[in-house]
Structures are given as structure tokens and as C-alpha cells.
Specification:
single chain; alpha+beta; Immunoglobulin-like; 3 domains; six-stranded antiparallel beta sheet; five-stranded antiparallel beta sheet; 22% helix
Length: 339
């Protein structure tokens, strides 16, 4: 109709470009009379985009009441008019999150070998969708260690040093329509105790000597009260079962006691570590060792013997000279007496 302005779909459903809805009082009254004269069906019909300038009806029509006050229910990703704020330039949508970006957490902290380690993928659902089903895969160094599961935890029953790495988790819906990933965290598994070292009391062992082997290790300062057990073996065969003693003794060593010795340390959590082999050689007899020290000892002994012989020689010479002189004196006294 002349003078009639178009009523846009943007003004009704907020989905198209915004146009003016201003109508004069006379134009609107004339429009109403024309629609009523056309019959009840035409009076109820209206296109989502409004009427054309020629007053023709369009498909997808709605009633006047629907135009003036109804709200269409939309999915979570499509906010309703009540969830939209008005700004100077038009409508500003508020996008609610189905769930928050997850955060991965580890317990206990710090983690020591043998601990039961648990990783938790922590997130929270929107109160608009509290019954949404989620799945939680976990990754270590970019590789999946647990697939898509309904539990938000990944556990390691007895943590080992090899379990150290960068861990992350994902949260996804069952249809993968929404998927979010946590930041990576570095998880370091601390050693419960260091690899043991086997020490031998004597480097030169002779047949009949006593030998002591010691298995040396040290506990982590995080677990100083942990009890350890020690075992010893020779050439792969056990010579002392696990006990609290870190010593193994060989009394009156024999030639057959020679061999490659090693020790093993374990904890109650079945953390076990083994030392390197140490070769122990039992000698049958001592070989001559012409060292400088022995040479000096021989020289000193020879000098002492020479000095002793010289003293004896001087003493015997003195005795002999004394006897000779005494005899001469006796003869002179006899001659004098005869005269």
C-alpha cells in the first residue's frame, strides 16, 4: 500500500539486518482495515520478513501475536533474547560455556618411586546442562596413555622414574561436538634410592684372609624412614638372601671364593636396583715384590750385619792383643826375678 513501510524479519527474530519499524497512526489503521477485509486467514498471516511493499503475503507466516511477544527456544550455542545484552550498536550475545577448560592435577606431590600416582582432569559443567556426559582421555609426551573414558582420573599403581613426562588431558562430549584440552604439566618421579655400589674391604686378598663386601646406597630425603633390604650374589648365584644387613663377609677366603660379586637393594614397594659386578680374586700365595721399599729394607739389614761383624772383629782383636801384651809382661817379670 502507498505509505506503508516494510516490517523486517530483523525486528521480529533478531536474525536479519535492522530496519526501521516506525509507522504512522493513519498508515497502520489503514493496513489493519485492509487485512480485516481480506478475511480471518489473511488477518492472521504474516511473513517472518514482514509484508512487501505491494502488501503480498510471504511463506513461513506467523500471527501478529507471535510477532509482538513470543520467544523461540534455541540451542545452548544460540542465546535467547533474555541471554543477550543490549549495546549502543545492537544486541551483544552472551555465549555460555558447556564446560570449563580442564586443569590437570597430580597427587601426591612430589611423587617418589613406588607411590600410587593419580592424575585428575578437573572441569565443571554449565548449570544449563548438568547432565551432559563427558569423556576424559589422558596423554603423556603427546601419546595417549588412557583412551576416552567416563572417569576423569588416570592412575599409576607403582610409579617408576620412566613414568616422568609432560602430561595433559582432554574433555569432550560423547559426540565430540565440544572438545577442550588442558595445559601440560611436567611430572617428575623422584628416585626412592640411588643405584647401589659394591665395595670390597681388601684389594689384595690372600687365601685365608677375611673379606667384607658392602652394598652402599642412599635414600631420598623425601623418604628417609624407608626400610631397605640387601642381597648378595656371586657369578649370578645368590650367596646371601635379602636382609636388613648391607654387609656380606667371607671368612678364611679360599680360591673357590673368587668370582664376580654384586648386590641388590629393594624396598617394600618392590622398587629394586642392582649394582655393577665387582671381581674378587683370591690368591694362593704371595709373590715376590721387588719394590724400592723392600730393597731399602735389604740394604738396611746388610748394613746392620756388617756393623755387627765389625764390632765382633774389633772385640776379638782387642782380646787377642790384650793376651799378647799380658804374656810379654809376664816373661819380663820372670827374667827380672832370675837375675
Amino acid at each position: 500500500m502507498p505509505g506503508q513501510e516494510q516490517l523486517s524479519g530483523a525486528e521480529v527474530g533478531c536474525t536479519g539486518p535492522k530496519k526501521s519499524m516506525h509507522k504512522s497512526a493513519g498508515g497502520y489503521a489503514a493496513w489493519r482495515r485492509e487485512r480485516m477485509a481480506a478475511g480471518p486467514l489473511a488477518s492472521r498471516a504474516m511473513s517472518p520478513g514482514g509484508l512487501s511493499e505491494g502488501g503480498e503475503e510471504m511463506s513461513g507466516q506467523r500471527s501478529e501475536g507471535e510477532l509482538m511477544g513470543s520467544e523461540e527456544e534455541v540451542p545452548l550455542s544460540q542465546p535467547t533474547a533474555r541471554e543477550m545484552g543490549r549495546s549502543a550498536g545492537g544486541f551483544t550475545p552472551v555465549q555460555p560455556n558447556l564446560f570449563e577448560i580442564p586443569e590437570i592435577k597430580v597427587t601426591p606431590y612430589p611423587v617418589v618411586e613406588g607411590d600410587e600416582m593419580t592424575l585428575t582432569c578437573d572441569t565443571s559443567l554449565s548449570p544449563l546442562r548438568p547432565r551432559t556426559q563427558l569423556k576424559f582421555p589422558f596423554q603423556k609426551d603427546g601419546w595417549y596413555v588412557q583412551g576416552f573414558s567416563s572417569t576423569n582420573q588416570y592412575g599409576v599403581q607403582s610409579a617408576q622414574v620412566k613414568d616422568s613426562g609432560n602430561y595433559s588431558c582432554e574433555v569432550t562430549t560423547t559426540t565430540n561436538s565440544v572438545r577442550k584440552r588442558s595445559q601440560e604439566i611436567l611430572v617428575k618421579i623422584n628416585e626412592l634410592f640411588v643405584t647401589p655400589v659394591l665395595n670390597v674391604s681388601n684389594f689384595e686378598v690372600l687365601k685365608g684372609d677375611n673379606v667384607t663386601l658392602t652394598c652402599n646406597t642412599s635414600l631420598s630425603p623425601l623418604r628417609q624412614r624407608t626400610e631397605l633390604q640387601f642381597a648378595f650374589s656371586r657369578d649370578g648365584r645368590n650367596v646371601q638372601d635379602f636382609s636388613s644387613s648391607d654387609h656380606y663377609g667371607i671368612r678364611s677366603a679360599q680360591l673357590e671364593d673368587s668370582g664376580n660379586y654384586s648386590c641388590e637393594v629393594r624396598s617394600a614397594a618392590n622398587i629394586s636396583k642392582k649394582s655393577e659386578d665387582v671381581f674378587v680374586h683370591i690368591r694362593g700365595e704371595k709373590t715376590t715384590d721387588y719394590t724400592l721399599q723392600n730393597i731399602l729394607r735389604l740394604l738396611a739389614s746388610g748394613i746392620i750385619i756388617l756393623i755387627g761383624a765389625f764390632i765382633v772383629y774389633c772385640h776379638m782383636k782387642f782380646v787377642r792383643d790384650s793376651k799378647t801384651k799380658n804374656g810379654e809382661d809376664a816373661e819380663e817379670r820372670v827374667e827380672e826375678h832370675q837375675l
